Amino acid sequence: TNRPGTASFDSKGIVHRAELSCNDHVTMSYTADQQAAVKKTIAAVRGDTGKHGKDLFVFWLTRSPDQLEKFPKYASVDAMKSVSTFPAHAKAVVDELLNIVEVAEDSGALNGKIKALMTSHASRDLSAANYENLWGSLVPFLEQALGGAFTPAAKAGWQNVGGLIINAIKSC
Questions:
Q1: Membrane spanning segments where (predicted)?
Q2: 32-171 maps to which CATH number?
Q3: Quick one: which of 21, 168, 48 has its CA closest to 160?
Q4: What span, in angstroms and rounded, lies between the C-alpha atoms of 128 and 144?
């Protein structure tokens, strides 16, 4: 059974929780090896967040064109590429995502980042499902973009940290 602050995993290894509040302390199996592997992939992505940001948006919105409605300036994936603010926006999204991932093992810091994210995006009518959709593309994107550097430990770590982040979003 799920109790506040306890974890259950789905078939993809994503952590799911029930009835959490932003102040609940949540533990899960996000191992030290996974954290180290995630940090290595963060360093690789930070090497060119501009390129990775644009590539992630193209990858994600090609897989999930229904999400384009959340971006009024982006009429289509092809049109998005020519919007003058697209490169800076995509880079900012990836930078913030990495900042959140870097603090995810600290529930207090994670909740603070998530509260700030939810406040800054309140006018955009985003739901946890929108963030889950992005995360559903993020792991395969990283696998493709980083190739062999995206090790099994990194994949497991990104799946687990994604569960922490999505559940923090759902509970705030």
A1: none
A2: 1.10.490.10
A3: 168
A4: 25
Domain ranges of the chain: 32-171
What is the SS3 assignment for 27?
coil
With a pLDDT cut of 90, the percent of the chain lying above it is: 73
User: Is 147 within 8 Å of 27 (Cβ atoms)?
Assistant: no
Which residue from 1, 42, 25, 2 is spatially nearest to 164, judged by alpha carbons? Answer: 25
Cα-only R_g, the chain: 16
Cα end-to-end span (Å), the chain: 22
Interatomic CA distance for residues 90 and 6, integer angstroms: 34
143 contacts: CB under 8 Å, gap ≥ 6: 150, 155
pTM of the model as a whole: 0.82
- Closest residue by Cα to residue 83 from 71, 93, 67: 71
